[in-house]
């Protein structure tokens, strides 16, 4: 019977099982990920979003607007939040995200994205989680806000390493 199920692809889900002890999300937990945004990232994001603001491509335009140099799209930087959540909880469903853009992010800067679970409640065999979200450069907040997410499980698939 097991061989037949293997051939037909009918096996019970093994998701959440591992030889190592599972780590479960709890209120207060912080997940982080670092990234350096490149000129290529900005160009590719612009192609998808159709945001061709010269602040992202022309240093002189950026300086004339009061910036030090070309600025990374704020929404590209904010994409760190769903990346962190989905890499730890595959199948997570984003419900909402508030954002406050505090400081510009320049190409080549290392940005650390962070999500902190502030509230978790079970709802119909899934979990509604509220996260405090923030991105930092050199310890200063560049973006902050809150996210609401439906998680299929509290078991983390991948533990994000500290930065």
Automatic annotation (TrEMBL):
Domain of life: Eukaryota
Gene3D superfamilies linked: Hotdog Thioesterase
Gene Ontology BP, a term: thylakoid membrane organization
GO cellular component terms, semicolon-separated: mitochondrion
Pfam families for the chain: MaoC_dehydratas (PF01575)
Keywords tagged on the record: Lyase
Gene Ontology MF: a single term: 3-hydroxyacyl-CoA dehydratase activity
Domain named MaoC-like: residues: 34-125
EC number: 4.2.1.119
Name of this protein: Putative enoyl-CoA hydratase 2
């Amino acid at each position: 019977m097991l061989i037949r199920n293997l051939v037909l692809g009918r096996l019970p889900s093994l998701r959440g099982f591992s030889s190592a002890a599972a780590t479960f999300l709890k209120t207060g937990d912080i997940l982080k990920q670092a990234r350096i945004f490149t000129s290529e990232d900005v160009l590719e994001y612009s192609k998808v979003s159709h945001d061709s603001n010269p602040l992202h491509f022309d240093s002189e335009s950026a300086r004339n607007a009061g910036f030090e140099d070309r600025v990374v799209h704020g929404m590209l930087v904010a994409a760190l939040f769903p990346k962190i959540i989905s890499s730890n909880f595959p199948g997570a469903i984003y419900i909402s995200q508030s954002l406050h853009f505090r400081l510009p992010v320049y190409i080549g800067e290392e940005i650390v994205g962070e999500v902190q679970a502030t509230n978790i409640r079970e709802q119909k065999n899934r979990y509604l989680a509220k996260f405090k979200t923030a991105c930092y450069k050199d310890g200063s907040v560049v973006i902050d806000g809150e996210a609401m997410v439906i998680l299929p499980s509290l078991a983390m698939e991948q533990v994000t390493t500290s930065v």
